[in-house]
Amino acid sequence: MTTPQERSEDLVDVLIHDHRGIEEMFGDVATEPGAEQRRRLANAIVAELVRHTVAEEQYLYPTVRRVLPEGDRIADHEIHDHSEAEADMKRLEGLDATDPDFEFVLTRLMTEMRQHMLEEEVDLFPRLRVAADPDELRELARKAQQVKKFAPTRPHPGAPDRPPANKLLTPALGLVDRIRDALSRRT
Hints:
By secondary structure, this protein is mainly α. Helix content is 79%, strand content 0%. It has a single domain, classed as Up-down Bundle (Four Helix Bundle (Hemerythrin (Met), subunit A)), CATH 1.20.120. The chain is elongated and about 50 Å long.
């Protein structure tokens, strides 16, 4: 299977590709009976959701604000969804996989994110493709793929979610998270 970066796809293609990967991870964690493996899968889901969120907040929502009627309202709604999901991700991060709250928070996170992804794919993305310049969307795809390489892997609910502050802070948070990830693998 070719990845979005190997084809000249646009930002919408990249984000939909992310959605499919996230949904696949949701399916994996839902069928995994072992607590330790569920914890690893939940951590991987959180890391992918955080990277995806960074790409959306840096490139999708500023474009939505600029090119769609009521773009500010739409972007604010989407960012609010991200904030709620990020709070769940942070809470999930602190729970042991054997804690009864782990299952509750994980299920709520998956439900929230499935709804969010569905709304984007059914409503927002088609409208964006009509309103935005195709060349710009292809350039934004390249930028989104690049930013995900350096994005944080853990939730940071207090971090800025709008440019330019988020663009300045993201690489530093990503570096800190990768150091923490490496240290936690050693223990």
